[in-house]
Amino acid sequence: MRVLTVNVGSSSVKLRALDEHDAILVDRELRGDDAGTGGAGLDAALDDLPPVDAVAHRIVHGGRAFRTPVVVDDRTLERLGELVDLAPLHNGPALAALERVRERRSGPPHVACFDTAFHAGMPEAAAAIALPREWVRRFGLRRYGFHGLSHAYVARRTSELVGRPLGRLRIVSCHLGAGASLAAVAGGRSVDTTMGFSTLDGLVMATRCGAVDPGALLWAQRQGAIGAEEAERALAHDAGLLALAGTEDMRVLLRRCDAGDARARHALEVYLHRLRALIASMAAAMGGLDALAFTGGVGERAAEVRLRACEGLRFLGLELDETANSEVDGQDALLGGRDPGPRVLVLAAREDLEMAREVRGLLSGARP
Fold first, then answer.
1. 20 to 30 Å CA-CA from 248: which of 49, 169, 177, 213?
2. What pLDDT, in 10s, does the model give residues 270-282?
3. Contact indicator for 245, 206 with CB cutoff of 8 Å
4. How confident is the model at residue 82 (pLDDT cuts 50, 70, 90)?
5. Within 10 A of 54 (CB to CB), how many other CB atoms are there?
6. Euclidean distance between CA atoms 113 and 68, whole angstroms
7. pLDDT, tens digit, 9 for 90 and up, residues 229-263
8. Mean pLDDT to the nearest integer, 7-33
9. pLDDT in tens, 203-222
10. Which of 55, 177, 167, 66 is nearest to 111 (CA)?
């Protein structure tokens, strides 16, 4: 089954066509004006793609309604529209792209694949939010978790590289990019994650705050008469590394650290402090650790982040080969550790492969 994957970000659209053996037939990324889901750039890209048997669409937030991939029909589109407010920066553009691609490629079935689905079976202790019961019931509050397609792929790929059954592994998956989250994957299942109800929780990110004391936000709102829209914009777009260092780009941040920039060094220390603490908490959720896997733009390319994260986690038995860590270049690789201790890996982010796997499983009648 040939599958076209459509991965919509806040400012980009990635299109990748895979053949029946998962070889990449076409790989396109649209940015800027071309990424507009109703624009000529998307239409032109779709016209250049080869015929496929199915189309997979990444949807960030499935809410309570969608816990598995689903074939898209008009009723599904209506239900997806009801979820846009849960993740407006992601679900809105993804839904617009889905409708456009479905219109332009009306022949094959279209399947929605959800980032939240991988975490839908988390234990209640990990999913619950300790807010008033009426709020929880009325607003559907729970910890949903995100980056599930990436975390699911990382878990399966880690099993392949370390040569151990997935069912016997405890993996901390580190998806580190502009958005970032960790997942505790035990026996192939997500048992905890760092993002919660929204994509703002957990790690310090490029422009997102990560975990923050709600009392600090309430205090700032009262003292500065800050409304909900201004607060939301600040937490999502003006916080994180951008707030700490004046740049959201980890590459720039690391260069500035090397040049002795005190503000950049402070930002990196804050980033690493949160990263190490939450890796340890994910390991605690599983009662131990067999593998630590880095993926995403920062996870794959920032050797210093991997090195310093592992240096602060030696009490978990982590060992990193500094030479291997510094020399890895875009390839999946083992970077350290030996049995029976935990292994350290770096993996290319391949959400497209997980989406294709889910689509084939759903359309063939097998469990994805």
1. 213
2. 999 999 999 999 9
3. no
4. very high
5. 20
6. 7
7. 999 999 999 999 999 999 999 999 999 999 999 99
8. 89
9. 999 999 999 999 999 999 99
10. 55
Question: What tokens were used for 179?
Answer: 């958005």
- Own/partner pairs for 81-87, CB < 8 Å, 24+ apart? 86/61, 86/198, 87/60, 87/61, 87/198, 87/199
Half-sphere exposure of 71 (CA within 13 A, CB side): 10
Amino acid at 226: I
At 357 the pLDDT is 97
For residue 221, the model assigns a pLDDT of 96
Give the three-class secondary structure for 6: strand
Output DSSP code: residue 314. G
Asked if residue 210 lies in contact with residue 157, where contact means CB atoms within 8 angstroms, the answer is no
154 SS3 class:
helix
3-state SS assignment for residue 40:
helix
pLDDT band at 339 (very low <50, low <70, confident <90, very high): confident
Helices (H), the chain: 40-48, 74-81, 88-104, 124-127, 133-139, 148-162, 214-224, 228-237, 240-245, 250-258, 262-286, 296-301, 303-311, 322-327, 351-363
- Residue 58 to residues 6, 147, 274, Cα–Cα distance (Å): 6, 10, 28
Bridge partner list, 334 = 345
Gap between the Cα atoms of 358 and 353, Å rounded: 9
Instruction: Spot the catalytic one: 115, 201, 261, 352.
Output: 115
User: Smallest Cα–Cα separation from 56: which of 11, 115, 119?
Assistant: 115
Centroid of chain to Cα 145: 9
- Smallest Cα–Cα separation from 158: which of 300, 298, 313, 345? 345
201 is annotated as an active-site residue: no
Closest-CA residue to 54 (of 103, 110, 114, 104): 110
**Inter-helix orientation angle 228-237/214-224, to 10°:** 130
